[in-house]
Amino acid sequence: MAAGYGEILRARHAARLLTGTLVGRLPNATAAIAIVLFVRAQGGTYSLAGALAAVYGVANAVGQPLLGRLVDVYGQPRVQLPAALASALAMAVFAFTGTDPSAAAYASVAGAGLFTPPLEGGLRALWPSVLRREDQVHTAYAMDAVAQEVMFTVGPLLVTLCVSLWSEQGALLVLNALGVLGALSVVVSPPSRAWRSAPREAHWLGALRSPGLLALLGAFLFVGVALGSITVASVPYADEHGGDVVYGWLMAALGLGALVGGVGYGARRWVGAPERRLRGLVALLAVCYLPLMLMPGAVAMVALTALAGVFLAPALACAFVIVDRHAPRGTVTEAFSWLVTMFTVGASVGTGVAGPVVEAGGALWGFAVPAAAGAVSSVVLLATGRVMAAPAGGGVVAASSENDPNRAAEPRFSSGDRA
């Protein structure tokens, strides 16, 4: 396992790209908690804090595929760095002006979310040009999924550290400054400067004209619903079994399970069509949500929550491969950004749905939401199996632009194109 990941990180530019992307995404990973803490310090209400965090999330979901399309057209440096600067500037305006007037606060937070650079999709577009073997790219996707779990675990801790060392305002400024430095590290690297998307066919739908990609996005919308609903359903359970400490352990266990699953998945070389493998992974993910409805004691519930997260990172890593296989020619960054958007929207829908369900039926029915959402995601993949099936021949890593599964005879990694 260590040898597989070590081989990836020893590849030229790989460690720098991964680290720069993770640091560059810190503002996005910490935005919700940083905004809430800042608004509270300003004397604002939790309703205002929640509304501002929601506006950031919605703007981010809108901006990712739009900026991803611009990256495919103009390249990474000309889009990623200006977007990072604009996002950081908007958050700095929010940090210095505060919540009054509220219109300015909403506008600045929306701007910060809208201009968040699509570093996540950009990194996945770069992997095939940095790693020349298909099995290495698959391992890198798994490592990417694992790194996400680490970032979303460490990010909130960094916010609290910055608050304790400086202030809530300082946390907003420092984390966004780090984000700009991370983006700068990526875009000045040779792979980022050299990468060019394949020539694209002009079409207003962009990446969304791929039926296989649409099917994948539909499935991961419901995976996001499941994940978002767990965060809400865990609150009333924790209230009855120990309070905030138990809730923290449940959320940490969910991330730890995904971390362990992703590490194990990336340590193995997988054969066969990733579309078929994804159906199995999502089915296992859905099955592992069911035991949460047992709601045992706190220790057992933490273990079940960890189990519920085990297949999340492997499913994401497998989805990354499928996105690259199905993205229409010249749209790879946009396609990856759409996956981020759908997952984010799904999580928001999950939190919105689970709230009324919990109020009506308690934690038990709240945990039924992720189980149902996981089942729907699995059904979507089964029902769309034919449109998701890649052309015969299997994917190979090649620096070629002939990757469009709708037109090319041989599927290739679309993100392998270089200048």
Architecture overview:
It is a single chain. With 419 residues, the protein is mainly alpha-helical. It is built from 17 helices and no strands. 77% of the residues lie in helices and 0% in strands. α1 (2-10) packs across α8, α4 runs antiparallel to α5 (77-97) and α13 (274-289) packs antiparallel against α15 (312-326).
* Arithmetic mean pLDDT: 86
- Rg of Cα set: 21 Å
Low-confidence stretches: 391-419
Briefly note the structural class of the backbone. mainly alpha
Structural shape: globular
How many helical stretches?
Answer: 17
Question: Strand share of the residues?
Answer: under 5%
Number of strands: 0
Estimate percent helicity.
over 70%
The SSE order reads HHHHHHHHHHHHHHHHH
Distance between the termini: 33 Å
Structural descriptors:
single chain; mainly alpha; 419 residues; disordered C terminus
In short:
The protein is built from 17 helices and no strands.
Give the helix/strand layout.
Layout: H1 2-10, H2 14-24, H3 26-41, H4 46-74, H5 77-97, H6 102-114, H7 119-130, H8 134-165, H9 168-187, H10 190-194, H11 211-241, H12 244-266, H13 274-289, H14 298-309, H15 312-326, H16 332-383, H17 385-388
Helix pairs in contact: 1-8, 2-7, 2-9, 3-4, 3-8, 3-9, 4-5, 4-6, 4-16, 5-6, 5-9, 7-16, 8-9, 8-12, 8-15, 11-12, 11-15, 11-16, 12-14, 12-15, 13-14, 13-15, 13-16
